[in-house]
Specification:
The structure is a homodimer of 334-residue chains.
Chain A lengths: L2 E6 L6 E6 L8 E10 L2 H8 L15 E8 L11 E4 L2 E3 L5 H4 L10 E2 L11 E5 L3 E3 L6 H4 L5 H11 L7 E5 L5 H10 L3 E6 L5 H7 L3 E4 L13 E6 L7 H6 L1 E9 L7 E3 L2 H4 L4 E4 L5 H14 L5 E5 L3 H9 L6 E5 L1
Parallel strand pairs in A: 10-11, 10-13, 11-12, 13-14, 14-16, 17-18
Antiparallel strand pairs in A: 1-2, 3-4, 3-8, 3-18, 4-5, 5-9, 6-7
Helix pairs in contact in A: 4-5
Chain lengths: 334, 334
């Protein structure tokens, strides 16, 4: 049983049809017939070997939705025909302090769906069922797929740092992650300010739940919010005027990075010390957080805005993501 | 009634005898006859105008202990003869979100004892009693004075970020702040690793409660603790290899800055994102935290190690602090 997929053979290479034999079906494994797979910016980083960690051939894809078509002997809670999703993580050590706390996403031996494993730009995937999640019936597969990585990445900080409804949240970047962050922060009952380098996204940002919209193309875009925001989620990959961003925070305010910035950030210590501010980083979320996130998305109608293209058009779709042209998430469909 | 004190008339100037008339006694004011005043590194920064914020003449001093000798009409809980202490803060707006939460130390209108006001290098001070704290009888005045600023600055993070006894705490810098941080972290029941640029401080650091001692003069001093510390308090004013420091943290670990570093810190975003680490800054502590800190110090025998000199020798004492020769806190005595 060969799995048919698309692989990059070298850094920045175009994706080409590829086949591989899956590992033997382990007790906790399930086979998923993939219907949809979102394209995350991390997939582009992996294809381009931006992190110098990619092994080729690389089969990207870690925002997977599909149907269970086979289960290992140890699998009790999944059955054939069920619709499930898989995100960035596909394995953990199950033994470290983080794992036994239910925070498998912080396991030092975390395994990624498409790093060292072949991912979701494929017709099928064999994966540890403990990192598969039932998709609530109200969510369309194409809108749900990007929640598995993009969604949990922006939901998890709101949960972990106990953001509360009377607070003001800033979202920097209205893209694949940011347009989901706005929706989750809105669902949290917060006042939401969106910052975007695309002034033409204002209408959509407001429809998604933003109360304020500030184009970062303006001079001093953070000036208007000085000392007004309690929590800022930064989804961008580009350098920002970080002291100005920190200055937009209230006392005890927190800047949460979910987008990996290429260059080191220059942080004056006083910008943190004087009013007990903090900078935190967030990587995806734990298994329970993913369940919660899907329930919340179902109840509040939170969904990724997607452009769905056939799997065979994978290269065009990747290019759109690479060049920031997706509005807001490209999703491949089999 | 003129207050006799020592003042710097210009940046880096020597302190000279000075006199001033205090403001009229306000309802909540008390007069304190100062017996002891610690010398904090901030006093040196103020004298030298390192922060470009100093107004001259400057009367430094914000680690004050003395005896109440007069009280305003609104003062109910202090009476003449009582021993009290005053730290960095001497005023707040009493109205902002932080103040009504009891976190007056984060009030945007915070007033400092020796910035815009004349401080404790003096025979007396008139000060808002709401920022004065009774000194527990078990604490000697000379050992207690440095707790009012140095002590609360390192105690407050342990409290605010809920450090727990099964955790491992790193303390960077074994000086005025660091030698207190070791004692408080030890009182919290934590495993404590001290990092110091003075290898000869090992014996004392261990006596204060450090379980491990690592000289930062070694090559890669943070190598031994990679992924082992849960909470690091950095008390130093010098540049560190911040990515290496962050690398010493466990998943979810926190680096807390209490020492203001002169240059912006270079922080790669991945060093925070991958394992949900954070960098926070801490300024002194609130009024309740100061009470708790004094109670804890009294119960656990936590005290500043001090070198006591007569107030008239203020310039020699300031020089010792300026050049890092204090072991560990210079205290002026009237």
């Amino acid at each position: 049983m060969a799995i048919k997929c698309y692989a990059a053979k070298k850094a920045k290479g175009r994706l080409e049809p590829f086949e591989y034999e899956p590992r033997p079906l382990a007790p906790f494994d399930i086979d998923i017939k993939i219907s949809h797979c979102g394209i995350c910016h991390s997939d582009v980083h992996l294809i381009d070997n931006d992190w110098q960690l990619t092994e080729y051939p690389l089969v990207p894809g870690h925002e997977i939705v599909g149907e269970v078509i086979d289960v290992g002997v140890g699998v009790k809670k999944f059955s054939n025909g069920q619709r499930v999703g898989v995100g960035w993580q596909c394995g953990a050590c199950w033994h470290c302090d983080m794992c036994i706390s239910g925070e498998h996403n912080l396991c030092p031996e975390i395994k990624a769906t498409c790093m060292g494993n072949h991912g979701g730009f494929a017709d099928m995937i064999r994966v540890d069922s403990r990192f598969a999640f039932p998709i609530p019936s109200k969510l369309e597969s194409e809108n749900a797929a990007p929640l598995l990585c993009g969604g949990i990445t922006v939901y998890n900080p709101l949960r972990t740092y106990s953001v509360r409804p009377y607070q003001k949240v800033g979202v920097i970047g209205v893209g694949g992650l940011g347009h989901l962050a706005i929706q989750f922060a809105h669902a949290y009952g917060c006042n939401v300010t969106a910052f975007s380098s695309s002034p033409d996204k204002e209408k959509e940002a407001r429809e998604l739940g933003a109360h304020e919209f500030i184009p970062t193309t303006e001079k001093d875009p953070f000036e208007k919010t000085v000392g007004k925001l309690d929590f800022i989620i930064s989804t961008v990959h580009v350098d920002m005027d970080w002291p100005a961003v920190l200055n937009a925070l209230n006392p005890k305010g927190m800047l949460c990075l979910v987008g990996a910035v290429a260059n080191p950030m220059m942080i004056p210590s006083f910008s943190l010390i004087l009013q007990q501010k903090s900078i935190v980083g967030n990587p995806i979320g734990g298994r329970m957080a993913i369940r919660e996130m899907l329930r919340l998305a179902s109840r509040h109608g939170i969904r990724a805005k997607t452009e769905v293209v056939p799997m065979k058009n994978v290269n065009e779709a990747v290019d759109k993501t690479r060049h920031g042209k997706a509005r807001y998430r490209m999703v491949l469909k089999n």
